[in-house]
Amino acid sequence: MTESNYLQGSCLCGGVRYRAALPVAHASHCYCTMCQKQHGAAAGSYANVASAGFVVEAGAELITEYASSDHGRRGFCRACGSTLFWRSTESPDRIAITLGTLEPEYAGPVEREWFVENKPAWLPLK
Ligand SMILES: [Zn+2]
Ligand SMILES: [Zn+2]
């Protein structure tokens, strides 16, 4: 596997490192209240990739999953709190990894926005 074939990411404390095989099906900003609460931000930002290509290279024991709904699972580092991924038990073949944990910075386009009606007024437009 060469560098161009996958994305790499890590959490704030560096304990968790992962990689995710390309391609990205789509990238998105999600403004739902659950993403806002979990990220403490205007949105959760994700790249949707195949779960089969998602590999935790270090710190798997640090990853805790919070069940935010009957099917939604939100993975985060229990040492530093970084949000790492969102996945659904209803579509186990996909996983949405957080754009903010990618290194280097995500270079692809963000094509989708979810729950735009919930976009906060304090979010700058540009
Ligand atoms: Zn961490
Ligand atoms: Zn959301």
UniProtKB/TrEMBL annotation:
Domain of life: Bacteria
Gene3D superfamilies: glutathione-dependent formaldehyde- activating enzyme (gfa)
Swiss-Prot/TrEMBL keywords: Lyase, Metal-binding, Zinc
Keyword ATP-binding listed: no
Segments forming domain CENP-V/GFA: 7-115
GO molecular function, one term: metal ion binding
Any single Pfam family the record assigns to this protein: GFA
Family: Belongs to the Gfa family.
Annotated protein name in UniProt: GFA family protein
